[in-house]
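Ticket #4471: structure export looks truncated?
Reporter: QA, pipeline team
Priority: medium

Steps to reproduce: submit the single chain below to the structure queue and open the exported record.
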Amino acid sequence: MGADPIAEVERHAQGKARSVAGMADDRPVLGVDTEVVLDGRVYGKPANSAEAEAMLEALAGKTHEVISGLCVLTPGWEELDHAVTRVSFRRLTPRELGLHVASEEWRERAGGYAIQGLGAALVERIEGDYLNVVGLPAALLVSVLADRFPGVYGYG
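Actual output as written to the record:
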């Protein structure tokens, strides 16, 4: 299994934000990292079509979590948090798996799918922030900004 997926995505998001912070001219920087997790196993970006098919077959008919770490970094403060969305795939036939893999949409996609594309056809239900599954935990980002800048991003 390895490291805790939440700690990993937060660490990666923080690393991404910090890696560009020096080039940002004192502007806020956003870092995000997303992983797909099923039964404690992390499904990253598949390296090839066989790995993509194996990932999708493992996710088929089950509910997995999409976990994103988010880091907002400014010269004065840093906010590090995460969001979790539960995604249920419907059962998939071998033909459907083959067609999805042949589409090559799995490339550079955690878990081998893109919910905003052809991967939407794999999904039966989601619980939580849809945009988190796309790759940006928008509800979490708005919450962080509303807490830090009440009256600007929030209603305070």
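Status: closed, not a bug. The export was complete when the record was re-opened. Leaving a note from the reviewer for reference: The domain at 5-142 is CATH 3.90.950.10 (Maf protein).
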